[in-house]
Amino acid sequence: MLRFLHLVIETAQRIGSLTLSKLFTLFSILLLSTAAASIQSCTLQSRGDAEANAVAAQLESRRKDCPSLSTFRESNAKLPLPTKDETRVVFHGNSITALWADHGFGMFFLGKPYINRGISGELTSVILCRFRSDVIALRPSVVVILAGTNDIKFANVHDVAGITRPTTFQAITDNLVSMAELARANDIIVVLSSLLPVSDYERDKDGKQIIRTAHRSPDQIKALNEWIKEYAARNGHTYLDYHSAMIDEKGFLRDELSDDGLHPNDNGYAVMAPLAQQALATAQRSKR
User: Fold this and answer.
1) Contact criterion met (CB below 8 Å) for 133 and 149
2) Cα–Cα distance between 258 and 39 in angstroms, integer?
3) 114, 30, 115: which is closest to 72 by C-alpha?
4) How many Å apart are CA 119 and CA 34, to the nearest integer?
5) What is the DSSP string of the chain?
6) Cβ(232)–Cβ(238) under 8 Å?
7) How far apart are CA 164 and CA 206, in angstroms?
8) Which residues pair with 262 in a beta bridge?
9) Is the dihedral of CA 78, 84, 85, 91 positive or negative?
10) β-pair type (114-118, 142-146)
């Protein structure tokens, strides 16, 4: 600012055309212009921060609403407590877990006390909300958590930055951490699953291409998976890597493993089942 003032004074001295009054007026205009530019810059930054905080707040608000808290209430009430020698496992998550029930969940894990507590469309905040009633209350030995893909979609729909904003990313990871900590506090072994890749290969019933990557960026899926893997290693949990076994050379969900580019089909779940079983065995060995 002083440099600008000196410049004005020097110019006035050269041309001798500015009175003190005019010089003061010119300097005031310069001050106001600089202040306006500063305010505009702060406003743009504040707007970006507001958008990021709004997405994080919306993600959090879903936990408070918890619309599906009663979905499994009746089923849970009918379940007896596990026997002394029973290794009960709860698969907890969204539609990818839920739809496994229609693709041979019981057959893949025949005779095993494995319980499916997936609900379609849920964000990590809601999956956390029902963690006590749908996991802890069932007294499992192990919980397999698969969650986060819907959060990525939600974030990208509401903010062009998606989960690349730190506040949004942390809102998701905080929910995963809370579930893991709740499990550990209740002596439940934790298996944290990677998100599955998605693809744009499939078409809807009208022949229109289904673009999954628009709202579920492969890079954002990879970033969240890297965080999950690192967090699991740092905290003594088991990481279940579905992603590496289901991705193709283009970075998409392998075409033969899904009919809609998002959810596994029979072939997809056939890949997932042995990986889950292997992770469960590893998790239980680490507990001994």
Assistant:
1) no
2) 51
3) 115
4) 54
5) -HHHHHHHHHHHHHH----HHHHHHHHHHHHHHHHHHHHHHHHHHHHHHHHHHHHHHHHHHHHHH-TTTTTTHHHHHHPPPPPTT---EEEEESHHHHGGGGTTHHHHTTTS-EEEEE-TT--HHHHHHTHHHHTGGG--SEEEEE--HHHHHHHHHH-TTGGGSHHHHHHHHHHHHHHHHHHHHTT-EEEEEPPPP--S--B-TTS-B---TTTS-HHHHHHHHHHHHHHHHHTTPEEE--HHHHB-TTSSB-GGGBSSSSSB-HHHHHHHHHHHHHHHHHHHHHH-
6) yes
7) 34
8) none
9) positive
10) unpaired
Closest CA to 279 of 100, 147, 143: 143
CA within 13 Å, CB half, 149: 25
Q: Give the Cα separation of 39 and 180 in Å (integer).
A: 43
Q: What are the structure tokens assigned to 204, written together?
A: 């809807």
Helices 20-65 and 149-158, axial angle in degrees (round to 10): 150
Which strand ranges, in their side-by-side order, compose the sheet holding 238-240? 114-118, 89-93, 142-146, 189-193, 238-240
The token duo for 50 is 């507001």
Collect all residues with Cβ–Cβ distance below 8 Å to 153 and sequence separation of at least 6: 215, 216
Across the chain, which has 288 residues, the per-10-residue mean pLDDT values are 49 48 49 46 50 63 72 96 95 98 95 97 96 98 98 95 94 98 98 98 95 97 98 98 98 98 98 98 86
Tokens representing residue 177 in the block: 């951490």
Model pLDDT, residue 31: 47
Residue of 150, 133, 1, 16 whose CA lies nearest to 68: 133
